Amino acid sequence: MVKITVTLGKRSYPIAIASGLFGDPTAFVPLKTGDQAMLVTNQTLAPLYLDSLRVTLELSGVKVDQIILPDGEQYKSLVVLEQVFSALLEKSHGRDTTLIALGGGVIGDLTGFAAACYLRGVRFIQAPTTLLAQVDSSVGGKTAVNHPLGKNMIGAFYQPISVVIDLNCLQTLPMREFISGLAEVIKYGITLDFRFFVWLENNIDALLARDVTALSCCIRWCCELKADVVSTDEREENGRRALLNFGHTYGHAIEVKMGYGVWLHGEAIAVGMLMAAETARLLGCFAEADVERIRKLLSSARLPIHRPAEMTAGSYLTYMKRDKKVLVGERRLILPTAIGRAEIRSRISNDIVLTAIRACSKSS
Amino acid sequence: MVKITVTLGKRSYPIAIASGLFGDPTAFVPLKTGDQAMLVTNQTLAPLYLDSLRVTLELSGVKVDQIILPDGEQYKSLVVLEQVFSALLEKSHGRDTTLIALGGGVIGDLTGFAAACYLRGVRFIQAPTTLLAQVDSSVGGKTAVNHPLGKNMIGAFYQPISVVIDLNCLQTLPMREFISGLAEVIKYGITLDFRFFVWLENNIDALLARDVTALSCCIRWCCELKADVVSTDEREENGRRALLNFGHTYGHAIEVKMGYGVWLHGEAIAVGMLMAAETARLLGCFAEADVERIRKLLSSARLPIHRPAEMTAGSYLTYMKRDKKVLVGERRLILPTAIGRAEIRSRISNDIVLTAIRACSKSS
């Protein structure tokens, strides 16, 4: 079992990575005999993992209740959040309960936010089942639900007490979901680690074939990068954590405008990263050849590299205006300066942004 | 202007107390020219204070938007919270915005929770207009909304950046609301400060007449006590802050069962405090004469001292089981040991609790 620590003083916590962890009670320490827990999952995952995880916990003497939510980004809402609170109250869960998020980014973000707010804060464990959640959203304590007017607008910084990554989950993940997760993987290479980007270029086929050794190496690498970023900038205050929003300002516009769940998060982020790279190129701070190298890796990963035909370039601007990173009065974008390095830039004209968006059209 | 500090390291903040503060731009520092703010208030208060506060802020160059919510405890809900988020998003409020809670406990709790969650946290200022909010709920960062199954079940510990108490508000407060606030005032005397309890016995008529000198002294005293408790136990972890829940476990049962807003918070808490005092007496740790002294002060303050005839004693138990303080597996009650001193007690039998509840009947 690989163990990585997110270092945050008293709120430090472990990330455990291995195959078969959902069958290993020691992975869910500090849960112990007599503890109360609420498993939160969705209708797709429940038949796959719920029973085995319940048995594992019950073998440790943990009293387990469960909530099964509908599957999809459109259910990451305040309405569904209230259902989680109702279930917790109906089963008399107290301040000493532990929520366990068994699922992808939607379940993790929503359950984490529920844990942050229920009785003003209870413990929670991330048990991420998708590639995206394992490499990104389950680590670092960003929790949220969506608002009809914007993604992740309502939330909290609230850290889990542990992250339990069972690599077996990736074998049953639908291909489209798996590929979507690769977008966040590639993001780490572009923004933080040139060596990892090169490793991805060399191992993308092994990853697509879900080779366990390649997956284990990849997820460990991403979690180490993420843990380091979160440890140095938990609340996105000094600019370091903001780099991980690379591609997200553009990408969120696609997700929101197309309707939650129509484009998967990673698909939208892939095109968003390309738009951001184009923006940097237009500003003269990023090489044309590096844009192509990103485009090639995204393409090898079978991620989309063209923006949705249904959206005009202009329509992005409205949604980008509402992005959390933008809502400081002016638009701020994360732009690469080289592969493996990025920075925050503001005061970029609408013209440049629109040209970058148009450069990612199918016809261009 | 009286200034009290809530000492919480980097999150320390001032409480300013004086007549006419809503007309004084310096009271709202650090808001400055160019800042964006959202005033949150209700339909009852808007005609009284909204315009003058707007003018004060606009004179300082602050860009002010406003949301006017319906008035009442029943609107302290997730549904109304979502309306606040919608207004903030529609007006493109960013991470640098400041929410200003202009109102009583409902507005303060809901606005504070909105500030805690909006974009994962923005600044907020408490501008409490009721006695209850001025002496208790606006200080200390307990924010929340209600759930149909329990009061304040969904929330966060989230501190304001300042509390601005304009004593003039108390002159227009409806008498029933004013009296309701006196319950929390009396709570401080019973749980924390015998000297204050005696002062209240001697000054209750001046307070009821809304004598400005008496009010100023009273509110300052309460805020100093509250600031001290919050500074030493922000998140209710070491038992000190929990003492301020005195009367609330019983009282919340009345509020929830009768329907939010039917019994005012302070009215329910008054009877709840008497029930807690009776419980302590039945356990032999609180003198009969002191129960009578509390009953007499509550009665002089024109607060209810009899439980609602509509509720059976047994019906309290269900709601008390769901109380946040109880939801640790066993019921814990705050009980006085002398006037000016209280402690947390658990494992109190249902028989004792029921007898204490019955002792507060009109017929008994």
Automatic annotation (TrEMBL), chains A, B:
Subcellular location: Cytoplasm
Pfam family, one: DHQS_C
Pathway: Metabolic intermediate biosynthesis; chorismate biosynthesis; chorismate from D-erythrose 4-phosphate and phosphoenolpyruvate: step 2/7
Residues at which Zn(2+) binds: 184, 248, 265
Entry's Gene Ontology BP terms: amino acid biosynthetic process; aromatic amino acid family biosynthetic process; chorismate biosynthetic process
Cofactor-binding details, from the entry: Binds 1 divalent metal cation per subunit. Can use either Co(2+) or Zn(2+).
Domain 3-dehydroquinate synthase N-terminal span(s) in chain numbering: 67-179
Chief localisation class: cytoplasm
Binding site for NAD(+): 71-76, 105-109, 129-130, 142, 151, 169-172
GO molecular function: 3-dehydroquinate synthase activity; metal ion binding; nucleotide binding
Swiss-Prot/TrEMBL keywords: Amino-acid biosynthesis, Aromatic amino acid biosynthesis, Cobalt, Cytoplasm, Lyase, Metal-binding, NAD, Nucleotide-binding, Zinc
Any one Gene Ontology cellular component term annotated for this protein: cytoplasm
Keyword GTP-binding found: no
Catalytically driven reaction(s): 7-phospho-2-dehydro-3-deoxy-D-arabino-heptonate = 3-dehydroquinate + phosphate
EC number: 4.2.3.4
Cofactor: NAD(+); Co(2+); Zn(2+)
Ranges of residues in domain 3-dehydroquinate synthase C-terminal: 181-326
Family annotation (NCBIfam families): aroB (TIGR01357)
Protein's job: Catalyzes the conversion of 3-deoxy-D-arabino-heptulosonate 7-phosphate (DAHP) to dehydroquinate (DHQ).
Similarity comment: Belongs to the sugar phosphate cyclases superfamily. Dehydroquinate synthase family.
Protein name: 3-dehydroquinate synthase
Source organism (scientific name): Candidatus Fukatsuia symbiotica
Primary gene name: aroB
